[in-house]
């Protein structure tokens, strides 16, 4: 099921600064707007592009700062608190993971197959609410649980869908609480609709 209600998303899309989204999309197109480059990405092994993917998508497009830069809020290879397993990436607040990122290559076409692995990392980080999985082509985004998500095809992401991608995942949205507000308001909207339906048919 989708994470967010369409009417709630549209309200928040209207609050985005167009210049920020347009600049981010130009950057995105540099990486994912070239058919030859996409074919090269398809050929890369997971370990060959993991850090490049995090830098291009999360740093250059979505605005995060990656370790070892000063005041970083994104890092690679983030270790579980209870064992030696590591997530491929993590979004950090006060050096604690609030989001974990699990990456595979395009030879893993089904993101469902890596969901449990990603949520194992989340469950080992007590402050973590966000889970992101990607095979460099598709990207799936969860909040809190594995039953609802939003998915994007990065190889075929037009401007309108990019606006949603940016709204949900940009550094400003995550750290300013906008993404959580989207979820909370979507839940209230859903409960309101359910309540109205119940009253209409009772």
Describe the structure in your own words.
The protein has helices at 6-13, 18-32, 35-43, 46-61, 115-123, 159-169, 171-175, 178-201; strands at 74-79, 86-93, 96-103, 130-134, 138-143, 150-153. With 202 residues, it is an alpha+beta fold. α1 (6-13) runs antiparallel to α8 (178-201). The longest helix is centred in the last third of the chain and has 24 residues, at 178-201. It is globular. The protein starts with 5 loop residues before the first helix and ends with a helix. The mean pLDDT is 92.
What is the residue-averaged pLDDT?
Answer: 92
Tally of extended strands? Answer: 6
Rg result: 17 Å
Main sheet strand line-up: 1-2-3-4-5-6
Uncertain runs with pLDDT below 50, 5 residues or more?
none
Overall geometry: globular
Tally the helices: what do you get?
8
Helix content: 40-55%
What is the SS-derived class? alpha+beta
What's the SSE pattern?
A: HHHHEEEHEEEHHH
SSE layout and pairing:
Layout: H1 6-13, H2 18-32, H3 35-43, H4 46-61, E1 74-79, E2 86-93, E3 96-103, H5 115-123, E4 130-134, E5 138-143, E6 150-153, H6 159-169, H7 171-175, H8 178-201
Parallel strand pairs: 3-4
Antiparallel strand pairs: 1-2, 2-3, 4-5, 5-6
Brief summary of the model shown:
With 202 residues, the protein is α+β, with helices and mostly antiparallel strands. It has helices at 6-13, 18-32, 35-43, 46-61, 115-123, 159-169, 171-175, 178-201; strands at residues 74-79, 86-93, 96-103, 130-134, 138-143, 150-153.
